[in-house]
């Protein structure tokens, strides 16, 4: 069962929260981050992407980057940009995007729950990305970005959170430049904290939605700290890592679409004929772009026209929780056998476009540097949970969560 703990957050003072809050470090490159912080010395990108404060060309994994991150983080604390919570607390974090609201609980979760698979995963991690965040956590002595997790919605938990929101004023309430609303409440009431801890103690599993590398790295650092302190009690802060827990019924996964550079030597007619072997192919006569409305259907933009593809019965295994995913059907029946893309994680001929960018972006890419695009029906949160429960992994680029959690609103230090 799941363990959650309150913690004394290092967090921005109220009047600077909107300036500190930043998108996660892994959704932009260094040049984009440098542009994003212009005129804003408070942006948390100065911590999460500290290379922006070093000479252009400094290696992303240079020791100086991690030292600069530490300097900037504690510089924020020393200058009063950040405050230290006076006692351990939990936090409620609500995001609203285009009228769609989701509310999570900011907590510390247990590295033992991760190691014992109470916290379940659905992605492989890359060693280089893990090593980067290990060095970041270890050098800054802090978890600077929360792990986005979910759990099967439980009315009793939702009731406690909603009642607290209704009866208390938020500490932060702002709308970011992208129009997304961020509101945070601090819970210091011991009775409420104990009720939430008790409720989560009967939650069988937590599921990482986004942040597998950050989670794995936080756990690795915790295990390293245990090794350096053989008499650890299990209560030290390094035994826990920063997470935001959202109920499954409030999460929204957007489509994660594909664009490919060429037709693997085929003409458009030859390519469509090959696709038709496993998909029903129909030219789309509607307005605008084709957005799939149900599972096992796909949009294809080729030669200036949209087509609807529907996977034929018998071309995939509906009883296999992984192979029945649309991203797997697309990979196994089209991208690999027809276009020759064996590993979409490493093949330079394929790129991925998050649904937040819209389907017009697929048309733009095809007109610019790609030959064909595919619009996808979004993976569901229950698909993710089923995969994680079975101990399987999702195919690459299966999920695109929106809205993105902001980094910098909560920092968990390891001592």
Describe the structure.
There is one protein chain. This protein has 415 residues and is an alpha+beta fold. 31% of the residues lie in helices and 24% in strands. It contains 13 helices and 21 strands. The strands form 5 sheets. Strands 1, 4, 5, 6, 8, 9, 10, 11 and 12 form a 9-stranded mixed sheet that branches. A hairpin with a 2-residue loop joins β4 and β5. α4 runs parallel beside α6 and α6 crosses α9. The longest helix has 17 residues. The mean pLDDT is 96.
Oligomer description: single chain
**Ends: how far apart?**
25 Å
Number of strands: 21
Q: Give the biggest sheet.
A: 9 strands, mixed
pLDDT below 50 for ≥5 consecutive residues: which ranges?
A: none
Helix content bin: 25-40%
SS-based structural class? alpha+beta
Give the helix tally.
Answer: 13
Portion in beta strands: 15-25%
What is the typical, i.e. mean, pLDDT? 96
Radius of gyration: 23 Å
Tell me the overall shape.
Answer: globular
Task: Give the helix/strand layout.
Blueprint lengths: L3 E2 L4 E3 L4 H4 L9 H7 L8 H4 L14 H17 L2 E3 L5 E8 L2 E11 H5 L3 E2 L6 H14 L1 E2 L3 E5 L3 H13 L4 E4 L5 E7 L2 H11 L5 E5 L1 H17 L11 E8 L5 E2 L1 E5 L7 H8 L3 E5 L13 E6 L2 E7 L14 H10 L14 E5 L5 H9 L3 E4 L5 H9 L10 E2 L10 E2 L2
Parallel strand pairs: 6-11, 8-12
Antiparallel strand pairs: 1-5, 2-3, 4-5, 4-10, 5-12, 7-21, 8-11, 9-10, 13-20, 14-18, 14-19, 15-17, 16-17, 16-19
């Amino acid at each position: 069962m799941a363990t959650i703990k309150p913690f004394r957050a290092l967090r921005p003072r109220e009047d600077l929260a909107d300036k500190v809050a930043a998108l996660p470090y892994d959704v932009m490159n260094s040049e984009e981050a440098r542009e994003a912080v212009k005129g804003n010395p408070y942006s948390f990108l100065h911590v999460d992407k500290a290379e922006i404060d070093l000479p252009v060309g400094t290696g992303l994994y240079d020791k100086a980057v991690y030292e600069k991150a530490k300097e900037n983080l504690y510089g924020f604390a020393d200058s009063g940009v950040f405050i230290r919570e006076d006692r351990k607390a939990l936090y409620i974090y609500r995001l609203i995007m285009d009228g769609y609201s989701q509310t999570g609980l900011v907590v510390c979760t247990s590295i033992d729950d991760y190691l014992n698979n109470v916290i379940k995963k659905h992605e492989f991690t890359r060693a280089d990305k893990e090593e980067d965040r290990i060095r970041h956590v270890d050098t800054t002595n802090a978890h600077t970005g929360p792990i986005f997790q979910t759990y099967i919605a439980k009315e009793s938990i939702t009731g406690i959170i909603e009642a607290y929101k209704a009866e208390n004023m938020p500490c932060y309430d702002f709308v970011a430049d992208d129009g997304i609303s961020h509101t945070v409440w601090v819970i210091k009431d011991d009775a409420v904290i104990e009720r939430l801890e008790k409720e989560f103690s009967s939650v069988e599993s937590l599921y990482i939605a986004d942040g597998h590398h950050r989670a794995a790295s936080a756990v690795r650092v915790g295990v390293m700290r245990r090794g350096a302190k053989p008499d650890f009690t299990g209560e030290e802060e390094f035994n826990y890592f920063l997470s935001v827990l959202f109920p499954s019924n409030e999460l929204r996964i957007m489509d994660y679409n594909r664009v490919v550079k060429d037709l693997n030597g085929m003409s458009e007619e030859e390519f469509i004929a090959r696709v038709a072997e496993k998909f029903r192919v129909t030219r789309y006569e509607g307005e605008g772009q084709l957005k799939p409305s149900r599972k096992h259907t796909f949009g294809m933009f080729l030669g200036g026209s949209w087509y609807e593809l529907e996977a034929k019965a018998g071309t995939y295994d509906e009883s296999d929780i992984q192979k029945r995913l649309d991203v797997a059907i697309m990979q196994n029946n089209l991208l690999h056998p027809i276009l020759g893309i064996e590993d979409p994680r490493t093949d330079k001929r394929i790129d991925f476009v998050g649904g937040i960018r819209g389907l017009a972006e697929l048309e733009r890419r095809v007109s610019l540097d790609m030959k064909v695009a595919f619009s996808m029906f979004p993976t569901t949160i229950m698909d993710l949970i089923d995969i994680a429960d079975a101990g399987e992994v999702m195919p690459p680029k299966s999920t695109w969560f929106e809205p993105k959690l902001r980094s910098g609103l909560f920092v968990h230090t390891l001592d």
